[in-house]
Backbone:
């Protein structure tokens, strides 16, 4: 259960350092350290079980549909890495407390550090590869924050960005690879995947999947040719380098290789790709490290080289090599973290970390010097220290390995890399600490407080202890971890300093001698090196990024022209082409369903529709005329509905048409009345061509469908309409009952559209638009804007129209009608008042706010739905019963009617709001405010009114 | 009859698309209206054509038209009103703000998205 807390504690605790920094730096560091300790304690509480050979698991489904679960497990490998991450994290927290200066925002630093720590622990403990990916990306993001911590430094920002681009890009490849892996294995659970190695290796997708996963692992672990980001990430504060680049972040790639070793390793492809990448990385990085003058740069390349060593060992694919890799991971973490912190102390104390400016520090800071010397001896692989042991194991494995039929290749290159590592270690140790005492340091170096060298000393004690008593101290850890990596029986081996005079020992001795010689001849070799051309990874990277940006800009400029008209053409043409493709590849026989005979009225209506449509195209420049033609088409469409047994649709269509026509007429009052002739004839013919093809396609499709038989699911609705829904008008019952939830959504959308219109037009107009509004002159203004006949007629019609609306509403459940149609009819009756008598007059008399009406409609419909919860039924379950009243007789009441009332109100509100808003804008454009008196039929004898009349 | 409905749907689609591709907002709105008619008729036709059999339950009815496409089309008609109204208002507001009812406003030279990204990012690239 508490397994989840181990990665989560650092995440939650990340909020604390920025809060506690006000209480001082010690409190802040203590809080951070406590959180890490807590996570560590929880982790170690599971250690006994893990060392009994159990696997501790905790599982919680997150998104089971896609196979993502929030599940963790601890086995030997996870425990080893998590302990290393938290342990070194603790040391770094202590160290950073003294390293950071008082001007550095420490709260932020510890917060980033904890976030990173949580992400890393999450990576190594995830039991679900999708969850692992989430944490993997989080390590990329948090390390970006840590590397760029000194955000005022340009190199920090650039280094952080480069790290993010490289590791983030690798992360993308890893996502694809992991998805493929999960697909092949049939599960995203790591513990399941680990059981299915044979299935995965036999899959035809194995190779592409392997390449993608390796892309993620190699970028993260800075393998050649992605090694260049790591040295640039050294712009980070030294505690970050010590943490990220020795023990954690860069080891994530190694972790992944080790974690998936049982399912991926052992194939020829694995050996042919992974081993040489590791080998080349080890050799090239070791060579570069020799010539680095920056202490941290030297250590960075040395880290890359050692990561290459581990990759190569895992790439050999043999169990013994895997054991050696595990052992080296442990050893490297101890001595490299110590060295990074040591380099930080030197930088902190001497004010520089340039090897050329250092020397003789042995006298000035003896404690630091001793510690760093021991750690670098381990790095060089000198006997008695732990680096020697794992290096021997590595050489032994390398000597056994033959690559591409050349048995000498791997041993020689591995030996050379060892030789180089001796040389750079010697350069670091001798040039910094020995030689004459210098007096030209920027500050006066002396040993720092124990808080800074203490963590280093702790690690160095481990370096020596493992070096002297490997089997006793590191033996069980290596054994348990290697068991988890290999997933099978361990090879027989024993960790000891003395294995007798083996070939590996001879190579090792040769490398020590050669490395010493190389160190002595450093100056000459460096001159030769400088005279040769060297590719600079950063320049290449920057150029590649520049090309990418230029390419992106080019494609944006080509495709994103901002022309909506062009986009429309492309969209429509694409649809036409796709549909045509589907058409040509299918059979095109006509159906056999009998067709209805044509009738003369139908042909006349059809003619009216076609003529009106074509005329609308030809005469669309005259906008009012085109609008009239459009409403002719709308009228024919409602006749079509009427003819083919859809009275509800006919009613709806005709009332919507009326409303729409009024709306368009209102807008035409403000918009230009004509459309200018634009574009070339060629463009018009192109559009006409596209439109014709699309029209032919639609016509053919509709005809083909209608001449074929079909099965409908409506039988259920027809059967249940009366007994289940309590109404005989099936269309209305479907709307308010069977598919009431859809209708509920519809009226909400309608309400939103009306509110958007309100927002668009209610917002005060800016200067330019107000001027434009004021300058609109109505060319053909009616002499009488509010003709008396119209005014009287609409007012007389209002109660009638309202009654019709109520009637249509009430009968809707059983006969054609219902909330939608009634709403439109009532809205029309009210809109007529605006048209006849003007906005000012009508608005002053509007008792109910139309926005409130929309809201009330939606609330009533919603409450009706919720009402069924009271009776323990699902949302929108309707019920009905019959009642009788004197005079009225027996009648039916259904909850669906309340729902329909909601629909009614929402429709009335939405229509009224949109139309009244447009007429309000128009009213602003009217030259003089309309006085409402002359239009009012006033019965009282107000002298003022009488006089005016 | 089927031929008449099918060809009418096709004509309205073609007219709708042609008007949709015009350069001014009002023809585009009209085009959209035509396309709405066509789409609604298309949906309706998926229930096939029946005469004198409205889906109103009655003991005398010989049969019923498919009510489901009708219900779908009914809400589609109402929603299309909401859509048309919104576009009309957008066009109106756009016209008042910019003084033109062209669909494509001429972007100023520095409004080119490609150019501004290029110059902006170049400044931030490491040298």
Residues:
């Amino acid at each position: 259960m508490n397994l989840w807390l181990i990665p989560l504690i650092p995440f939650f605790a990340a909020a604390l350092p920025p809060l506690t920094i006000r209480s001082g730096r010690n409190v802040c560091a203590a809080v951070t350290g406590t959180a890490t300790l807590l996570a560590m304690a929880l982790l170690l509480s599971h250690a006994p079980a893990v060392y009994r050979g159990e696997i501790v698991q905790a599982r919680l489904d997150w998104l089971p549909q896609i196979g993502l679960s929030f599940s963790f497990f601890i086995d030997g490998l996870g425990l080893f890495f998590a302990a290393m991450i938290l342990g070194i994290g603790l040391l770094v927290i202590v160290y950073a407390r003294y390293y950071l200066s008082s001007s550095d925002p420490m709260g932020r630093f510890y917060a980033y550090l904890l976030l990173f720590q949580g992400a890393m622990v999450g990576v190594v403990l995830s039991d679900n590869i999708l969850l692992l990916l989430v944490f993997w990306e989080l390590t990329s993001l948090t390390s970006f924050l840590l590397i760029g911590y000194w955000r005022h430094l340009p190199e920090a920002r650039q280094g952080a960005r480069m790290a993010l681009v490289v590791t983030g890009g690798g992360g993308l490849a890893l996502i694809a690879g992991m998805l493929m892996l999960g697909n092949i294995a049939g599960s995203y659970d790591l513990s399941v995947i680990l059981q299915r190695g044979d299935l995965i290796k036999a899959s035809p997708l194995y190779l592409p999947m392997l390449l993608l996963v390796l892309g993620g692992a190699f970028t993260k672990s800075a393998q050649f040719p992605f090694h260049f980001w790591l040295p640039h990430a050294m712009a980070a504060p030294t505690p970050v380098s010590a943490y990220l680049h020795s023990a954690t972040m860069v080891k994530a790639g190694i972790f992944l290789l080790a974690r998936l070793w049982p399912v991926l390793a052992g194939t020829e492809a694995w050996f042919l790709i992974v081993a040489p990448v590791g080998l080349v990385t080890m050799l090239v990085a070791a060579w570069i490290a020799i010539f680095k003058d920056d202490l941290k740069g030297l250590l960075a390349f040395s880290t890359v080289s050692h990561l290459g060593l581990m990759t190569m060992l895992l790439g050999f694919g043999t169990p013994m090599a895997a054991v050696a890799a595990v052992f080296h991971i442990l050893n490297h973490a101890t001595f490299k973290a110590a060295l990074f912190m040591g380099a930080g102390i030197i930088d902190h104390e001497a004010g520089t970390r340039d090897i050329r400016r250092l020397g003789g520090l042995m006298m000035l800071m003896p404690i630091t010097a001793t510690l760093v010397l021991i750690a670098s001896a381990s790095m060089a692989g000198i006997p008695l220290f732990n680096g020697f042991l794992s290096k021997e194991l590595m050489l032994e494995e390398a000597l056994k390995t033959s690559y591409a039929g050349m048995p000498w290749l791997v041993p020689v290159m591995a030996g050379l890399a060892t030789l180089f590592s001796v040389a750079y270690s010697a350069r670091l140790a001798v040039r910094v600490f020995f030689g004459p005492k210098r007096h030209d340091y920027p500050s006066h170096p002396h040993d720092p407080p124990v808080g800074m060298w203490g963590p280093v000393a702790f690690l160095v004690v481990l370096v020596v202890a493992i070096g002297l008593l490997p089997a006793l101290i590191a033996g069980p850890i290596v054994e348990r971890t290697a068991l988890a990596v290999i997933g099978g029986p361990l090879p027989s081996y024993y960790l000891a300093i003395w294995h007798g005079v083996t070939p590996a020992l001879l190579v090792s001795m040769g490398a020590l001698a050669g490395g010493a010689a190389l160190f002595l001849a450093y100056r000459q070799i460096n001159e030769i090196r400088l005279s040769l051309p060297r590719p600079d990874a950063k320049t290449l990277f920057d150029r590649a990024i520049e090309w990418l940006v230029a390419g992106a800009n080019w494609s944006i400029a080509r495709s994103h022209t901002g022309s909506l008209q062009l986009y429309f053409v492309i969209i429509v043409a694409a649809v036409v082409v796709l549909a045509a493709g589907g058409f040509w590849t299918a059979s095109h026989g006509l159906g056999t369903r009998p067709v209805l005979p044509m009738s003369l009225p139908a042909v006349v209506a059809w003619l009216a529709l076609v003529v009106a449509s074509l005329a609308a195209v030809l005469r669309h420049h005259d906008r009012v005329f085109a609008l009239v033609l459009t409403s002719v088409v709308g009228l024919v469409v409602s006749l079509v509905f009427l003819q083919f047994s859809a009275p509800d649709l006919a009613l709806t269509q005709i009332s919507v048409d009326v409303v729409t026509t009024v709306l368009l007429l209102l807008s035409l009052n403000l918009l230009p009345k004509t459309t200018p002739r634009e574009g070339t004839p060629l463009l018009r013919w192109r559009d006409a061509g596209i439109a014709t093809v699309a029209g032919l396609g639609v016509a053919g499709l509709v005809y083909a469908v209608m001449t074929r038989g079909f099965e409908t699911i409506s039988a259920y609705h027809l059967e249940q309409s009366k007994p289940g829904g309590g109404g005989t008008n099936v269309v209305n019952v479907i709307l308010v009952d069977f598919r009431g939830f859809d209708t509920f959504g519809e009226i909400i959308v309608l309400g939103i559209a009306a509110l958007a219109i309100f927002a668009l037009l209610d917002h005060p107009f800016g200067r330019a638009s107000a001027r434009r509004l004021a300058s609109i002159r109505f060319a053909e203004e009616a002499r009488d804007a509010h003709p008396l006949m119209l005014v009287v007629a609409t007012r007389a019609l209002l109660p009638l129209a309202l009654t019709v609306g109520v009637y249509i509403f009430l009968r809707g459940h059983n006969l054609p009608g219902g909330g939608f149609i009634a709403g439109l009819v009532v809205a029309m009756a009210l809109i007529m008042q605006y048209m006849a008598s003007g906005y000012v007059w009508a608005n002053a008399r509007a008792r109910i706010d139309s926005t409130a009406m929309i809201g009330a409609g939606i609330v009533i419909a919603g409450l009706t739905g919720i009402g069924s919860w009271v009776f323990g039924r699902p949302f929108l379950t309707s019920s009905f019963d019959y009642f009788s009243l004197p005079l009225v007789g027996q009648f039916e009441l259904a909850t669906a009617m309340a729902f329909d009332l909601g629909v009614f109100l929402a429709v009335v509100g939405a229509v009224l709001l949109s139309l009244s808003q447009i007429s309000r804008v128009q009213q602003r454009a009217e030259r003089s405010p309309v006085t409402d008196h002359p239009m009012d039929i006033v019965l009282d004898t107000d002298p003022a009114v009488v006089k005016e009349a | 009859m089927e031929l008449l409905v099918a060809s009418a749907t096709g004509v309205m689609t073609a007219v709708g698309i042609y008007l949709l591709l015009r350069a001014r907002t009002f023809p585009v709105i009209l085009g959209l209206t035509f396309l709405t008619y066509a789409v609604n008729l298309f949906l309706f036709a998926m229930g096939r054509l029946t005469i004198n059999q409205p889906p109103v339950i009655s003991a005398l009815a010989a049969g019923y038209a498919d009510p489901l496409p009708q219900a779908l089309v009914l809400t589609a008609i109402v929603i299309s009103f909401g859509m048309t109204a919104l576009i009309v208002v957008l066009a109106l507001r756009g016209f008042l703000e910019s003084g033109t009812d062209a669909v494509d406003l001429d972007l100023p030279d520095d409004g080119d998205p490609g150019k501004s990204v290029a110059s902006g990012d170049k400044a931030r690239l490491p040298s």
Observations:
- The beta strands of chain A are 56-58, 61-63, 68-69, 72-74, 880-885, 889-894.
